[in-house]
Specification:
The structure holds 2 protein chains of 2 kinds.
Chain A (H helix, E strand, L loop, with lengths): L7 H9 L2 H23 L4 H17 L1 H14 L3 E5 L2 H14 L4 E5 L2 H5 L2 H7 L3 E4 L2 H8 L16 H12 L7 H18 L2 E4 L3 E3 L4 E6 L3 H7 L3 E7 L3 E2 L2 H16 L6 E5 L13 E7 L3 H5 L15 H4 L2 H6 L10 H12 L16 H5 L6 H14 L5 H14 L2 H18 L9 H4 L13 H11 L5
Parallel strand pairs in A: 1-10, 2-3, 2-4, 4-7, 5-8, 7-10
Antiparallel strand pairs in A: 5-6, 6-9
Helix pairs in contact in A: 2-12, 3-12, 9-10, 16-18
Chain B lengths: L9 E4 L3 H6 L1 H13 L3 E3 L9 H5 L3 H15 L5 E3 L2 H14 L4 H11 L2 E3 H8 L12 E5 L2 H6 L5 H7 L5 E3 L14 H4 L1 H17 L4 E4 L2 H13 L5 E4 H6 L2
Parallel strand pairs in B: 1-2, 1-3, 3-4, 5-6, 5-7, 7-8
Helix pairs in contact in B: 5-6, 7-9, 11-12
The chains are: A alpha/beta, B alpha/beta.
Chain lengths: 471, 247
């Protein structure tokens, strides 16, 4: 949706300049990590479950058309209507038309990063609707005119004090620093909104092809209110959310809450199969499912990158990522942040628009280790780096450095000479802070190593002939 | 040539380009430790760099060139041992990926990967070494590099060796699993992020109460040592091979 390339270097430096932001995110991350570790450790076959979930997802992605057609058929048979959207614009139009046809003005929303991806709120507001986010964090972010910073904790970058001031400003309530009181305030506002809403829009965690069931996992109950109170429910999902059978859900519902929030179970899991039937007391009169592609089928057809679509949006890779911890999500320039965002955003928007993102990682591997569906995130980052570089995208200095390095390393005799020159240069530069790139970037935070007089290979003959244990 | 117990009696030391050019004392210490553990050490002098620098930065054709050279330089070795978990991970985990379009090379890479070890891993898992007669009377904390933790899945190997060192007091490092922020080109491309991660790591090292921080990786240590020096810290960074060789 944005055509300006994402400048992660600048955005991350701006985020780093805000120590409150880092402290807020850090506090939440550490809490998440501890909770996650505890509930993951108590599942004896966690690794087998991850492996199983990975296989189910990869199988589904390999037969995406078949399962999506089955899903369409079953949702329709249950009384719902299915709409297919090739891209963001088409999804916006479909949803705006549905709301308009209902004569709707007031829309409540819950649990949908996909709607953030297609910037649905902007489109609906342009169509004259009032849209209210009902997830607590997302509501706060919307009130602040901000964007979500985390897949499942959208307001993670805000401190309690900031939230208290925000609510006092926008809602005219007194400033409170008690999170429970703040939550009560928001709940009072949202209850009124739910009761007056014409249309409820949600995301989908899993869509079961076998039964046409849409599964929504949440903790606040707002998704349940969004799907039952308004007369129309519109569910928006990316094509990758489909899973074959109800039986597969058991595995995903074990993995998701543990990896996402460190809970054994989420407070609410809604299983929605069709709209309200005759004689039923609640539920919407109309149920619409919008299935969005927006570049996904291209990713699914890519034998190397398809794995990225196995993501169940738990956010665990963000929680363990030292880079995310320091930038919050915004520096990634996309709703999908952290390691999975660094992979998915370039795939969805194109490498040229997000060429820096795959490099925004120290490749520490923590993300790959935590991922509950075993996506090999470090490998995908590496693969994307290779694609970026094969398109000639690199700074000229960097290209020169790597090409020069390779030429030197192609022969030991060159290494010997180049090494001697490098050590000589390093000696001459000791203590200096004004240096050419990349040394300039190194000495911003670290001193240069003090070089030895000669290399190991120059000492080896002597060491070898000494023979004994003591060199 | 293996001895009666089937252990390799002779290893090729893969000294790594960084150790060779900037930290030769680590290479010397690795030789001493291996000899004390009863194995003969060769150093193939044609060796240069495994290609990790180029690979991690996305320059795969360049990295593949160096990988093929590496296979030639070390292909005949009974076992390859290196004082760098990061470089060992490159060969073990990433060569098959890097060389996937060249099946014969990929087969050779897999074969060599099975004979390639990080130094402490080789000492503990292959030689079952514990006490190597070292003496190092200091408070030491061990930084577990990301590649040792997640690339090679080393857990207790370095600690077992450190615990056997006379006079050494081992201190736990808070936030052990958190990256120090080096990450190769990451350290310069995203210098501010790297610097912030480095600061957190240095704070943890100082909080441990150690006088010395050690690791299986010279690359992390170069970054941490550079940071400690910049902030005038009294803590020294010393590679684990040097501690195990100390008397």
């Amino acid at each position: 949706m944005r055509s300006v390339p994402i400048d992660f270097v600048r955005a991350s430096e701006a985020a780093l300049a805000d120590p409150v932001l880092h402290a807020s995110v850090r506090r939440a991350m550490v809490r998440f990590r501890d909770l996650q570790r505890a509930v993951i450790e108590e599942v004896p076959d966690w690794q087998a479950l991850r492996e199983h979930a990975h296989r189910v997802k990869m199988h589904t992605l390999a037969h995406l058309d078949r399962y999506l057609e089955q899903l369409d058929e079953r949702v329709t048979a249950a009384g719902g209507r299915v709409h297919w959207a090739r891209d963001a614009g088409e999804a916006q139009r479909i949803i705006a038309d549905l709301v308009r046809a209902r004569g709707g003005r007031a829309v409540v929303k819950s649990k949908s990063m996909t709607s953030e991806e297609i910037e649905l709120n902007t489109a609906l507001q342009a169509a004259g609707c009032q849209v209210v986010e009902t997830d607590l964090g997302e509501y706060l972010v919307q009130l602040a005119g901000d964007r979500p910073a985390h897949l499942i904790a959208p307001a993670i970058h805000r401190s309690t004090e900031e939230i208290a001031r925000l609510l006092a400003d926008r809602l005219g309530v007194p400033v409170h620093d008690d999170p429970a009181e703040l939550t009560r305030t928001v709940r009072r506002v949202l209850r009124r909104t739910f009761l007056s809403a014409d249309v409820g829009i949600t995301g989908v965690n899993f869509a079961v092809a076998e039964t046409g069931t849409l599964v929504i996992v949440e903790n606040e109950g707002n998704a349940r209110l969004t799907t039952t109170l308004p007369r129309m429910h519109i569910a928006l999902m990316g094509v990758e959310k489909v899973i074959p059978r109800l039986a597969d859900l058991a595995v995903f519902l074990t993995l998701l809450p543990r990896a996402a929030t460190g809970q054994r179970l989420s407070s609410y899991v809604s299983w929605i199969t069709g709209p309200r039937r005759p004689g039923e007391g609640d539920g919407p009169e109309e149920l619409h499912l919008v299935i969005l592609d927006n570049g996904r089928s291209g990713i699914a057809a890519d034998p190397v990158m398809a794995e990225a679509l196995a993501c169940i949006r738990c956010g665990a890779c963000l929680d363990v990522c030292p880079v995310f911890e320091r930038t919050a999500g915004h520096a990634y320039g996309s709703v999908y942040s952290g390691p999975i965002g660094a992979v998915i955003t370039p795939l969805l928007r194109g490498l040229d628009a997000a060429a820096q993102l795959p490099f925004a990682s120290s490749l520490c591997g923590a993300c790959g280790e935590i991922c509950p569906v075993r996506i090999d995130l470090p490998r995908l980052l590496l693969e994307l780096r290779a694609r970026v570089m094969s398109r000639g995208w690199s700074g000229p200095m960097e290209r020169m450095f790597v090409r020069g390095w390779t030429a030197v390393m192609a022969r030991a005799s060159r290494l010997r000479v180049a090494g001697r020159m490098a050590r000589w240069a390093l000696r001459a530069l000791q203590g200096r802070r004004v240096l050419p790139y990349p040394l300039s970037a190194w000495v911003r935070y670290r001193d240069l190593p003090a070089p030895p007089a000669d290399a190991f290979r120059d000492r080896w003959q002597k060491i070898r002939s000494s023979g004994g244990a003591q060199p | 040539m293996r001895d009666a117990s089937g252990r390799p009696g002779r290893v090729a030391l893969w000294v790594t380009c960084l150790v060779d050019q900037l930290f030769p004392q680590v290479g010397e210490a690795a030789v001493a430790v291996l000899r004390r553990a009863g194995v003969e050490v060769d150093v193939p002098l044609a060796q240069t760099c495994c290609g990790q620098v180029a690979f991690n930065d996305g320059f795969w054709p360049e990295a593949a060139r160096l990988a093929r050279k590496f296979l030639n330089d070390f292909g005949g070795a009974e076992a390859v041992v290196t004082p760098s978990a990061s470089c060992a991970t490159m060969v073990r985990e990433f060569y098959p990926l890097l060389l996937r379009d060249d099946p014969p090379a990929a087969v050779r890479a897999r074969d060599l990967a099975a004979r390639t070890y990080e130094l402490t891993e080789f000492l503990v898992d292959v030689l079952d070494a514990g006490d190597l007669g070292a003496r190092f009377p200091h408070r030491v904390t061990c930084h577990a590099s990301c590649h040792s933790l997640r690339g090679l899945r080393l857990r207790d190997q370095p600690l077992r060796l450190l615990r056997a060192v006379r006079g050494l007091e081992l201190r736990e490092l808070p936030g052990l699993e958190e990256c120090c922020g080096f990450g190769g080109m990451f350290a310069v491309t995203f210098a501010a992020l790297s610097g912030s991660m480095l600061h957190a790591k240095m704070a943890a090292v100082e909080a441990s109460g150690a006088e010395v921080v050690t690791s299986t990786d010279c690359s992390c240590l170069m970054h941490i040592a550079g940071g400690l020096s910049r902030r005038g810290s009294a803590v020294r960074a010393v590679h684990i091979a040097e501690i195990l060789a100390a008397r």
